[in-house]
Amino acid sequence: MLVVGLTGGIASGKSTVSKIFSTNHSIPIIDADLLAREVIEPGTSGFSLIVDHFGADRILDSSGLLDRAALGEIIFNDPDERKWLNSVIHPRVRREMVKRTVSYWLGGEWCVIVDVPLLVEAGMWRWVGDVVVVYVNEKLQLSRLISRPVPNTPPLTETQAKARISSQMSLSEKLNYSTYVLDNSGTMKDLEVQIDKLVSKWKVSQGFNYFGWWYKLCWLVPPVGLTAGLMVLFSRWLKYNVGSKKGRRRGRGEVDRGWKPEEIELRERNGRPGGRRRTGGSITDE
């Protein structure tokens, strides 16, 4: 089974991409944001630790539930508190993600997408077969974040929005870890076309042009699947620990690390009408 890590930044459109994968291609999604909420719900050990650390008067609402806006205001402006909160949430989320990934594999799925905002920061990119980064430039990211409606919460000011963006690794840095880049600076149709082509590439890699023989073999014969997974992880280790020092030829469809992020966006939007787009780092390379 192909395990794909999907990441991006706040207001980059990652949730939209995730929904397209799920709705248009029936690929199961493991959403780390949803899991992060589940592991700190009232009654969990995570909830108790967080309330004890920050204080009920600071982060609980009148119903005794977490006031996420208040908690967000604390952690987005205090790196130490953010680090502590991540140390509580991340291990619990990782355990739940492993359980669900195994469950999908046992169910015979050919691919699962792990949707993780902090895929790179948490080091989880090392444990997936492909890394997909949803990219927009910083100006568009800021504009979308300010204009994004949040129920029962006043809109963010520009200062608040910038603080939230700067609290995360920049999208341009995440490109260094990506296998494929989805440029979300254009229309929904542009995005869907990129995703369709990417899924087609994945299916070919899993033997779908021959009745899905590879993923079925890995499912029916677990030692083959385990060996294949270990080989993928080993090749990823070589790529970032050996290949990065010696330099290597860029694989088909991979990101050209020599381009600036703005060039990725411009090349994606300026593709030849009716022909192949000229984005070395996008999934539209044929």
Descriptive overview:
- The model is unreliable at 245-259 and 265-286 (pLDDT under 50).
- This protein has a five-stranded parallel sheet with strand order 2-3-1-4-5, with helices on both faces.
- It has two domains: 1-28 and 111-286, Rossmann fold (3-Layer(aba) Sandwich); 41-108, no CATH class.
- It has 13 helices and five strands.
- The chain has helices at 14-25, 32-38, 45-54, 56-59, 68-75, 79-106, 138-147, 158-166, 171-174, 188-205, 213-220, 222-246, 261-269, and strands at residues 2-7, 29-31, 111-115, 130-135, 180-183.
- The longest helix is centred in the first third of the chain and has 28 residues, at 79-106.
- Helix 1 crosses helix 10 (188-205), helix 7 packs across helix 8 and helix 11 (213-220) packs across helix 12 (222-246).
- Helix content is 53%, strand content 8%.
- The protein is α/β, with parallel strands linked by helices and 286 residues long.
Structural topology:
Blueprint: E1 2-7, H1 14-25, E2 29-31, H2 32-38, H3 45-54, H4 56-59, H5 68-75, H6 79-106, E3 111-115, E4 130-135, H7 138-147, H8 158-166, H9 171-174, E5 180-183, H10 188-205, H11 213-220, H12 222-246, H13 261-269
Helix pairs in contact: 1-10, 7-8, 11-12
So how many helices? 13
Total strands:
5
Number of separate structural domains: 2
The CATH architecture of the largest domain can be given as 3-Layer(aba) Sandwich
Radius of gyration: 20 Å
Feature tags:
5 strands; globular; Rossmann fold; alpha/beta; disordered C terminus; 286 residues
Task: Briefly say what this structure is.
By secondary structure, the protein is an alpha/beta fold.
